[in-house]
Amino acid sequence: MYDIASEKTGQQRDGRVVFVRDERRPAASGFTRHYHIHWAADAAAAIAFLAQQTVVKLYEYVMVDTPEGCYGRDISGLFDGQTGGAVAPKLLKEITCGTLVFFVTSGLPAGLWIGARAFAQALDANGHGEAYSAEFTACDPAGQVIAAIFPQLPVGDYEIQTHFTAPLRAAIRPGQVTELKRSI
Questions:
Q1: pLDDT tens-digit readout, 147-173
Q2: Mean of the pLDDT values across residues 115-139?
Q3: Are residues 35 and 65 in the same domain?
Q4: What is the pLDDT of residue 111?
Q5: Given 32, 57, 92, which residue is the final one in a domain?
Q6: Of 99, 102, 113, 117, most Cβ neighbours within 10 A?
Q7: For 174, phi and psi rounded to 5 degrees?
Q8: Phi, psi values for residue 149, rounded to 5°
Q9: Domain of residue 148, CATH code
Q10: What does the alpha-carbon distance between residue 129 and residue 136 come to, in Å, rounded to a whole number?
Q11: Residues contacting residue 16 through CB under 8 Å, at least 6 positions apart
């Protein structure tokens, strides 16, 4: 049996984030929500941990309970677990990465998108910078939502390209998710 009280005590001594349990709960949509629940000594440790996590499926959540409150991450980014709203900006001040999710909402058959790649080119003052790539995959249990997810892009401006679309621009902000939706 898992002893959460002893883990919380250990957590408060050394500042680590510890895994507590997994939970599955039915959603009104008929799908199952999957929660990965953790414990941290404070909000700063929770946010730093969540900023490093990658969630690429709908209905999947990484949650961290703290004495100050609960914080979470899902495919749409970091959130306050009590309100469901945005995390306070002061908690994001040391986060240097964000996430980009490029959704394909309709058009070409899913089979053409699965396995295709999207490319994110960082834009410096000269319009150049490091390049990143991500593969399009299904993000929901039914395989109807297709996206390319860049989980840890350094904060900045990017140009996004695929073989099927014209270039798009996106700004990555600390600890947040930038969503692009493209209908083809």
A1: 888 888 898 999 998 887 788 889 888
A2: 86
A3: yes
A4: 67
A5: 92
A6: 99
A7: -55, 125
A8: -120, 125
A9: 2.60.40.10
A10: 22
A11: 10, 40, 45
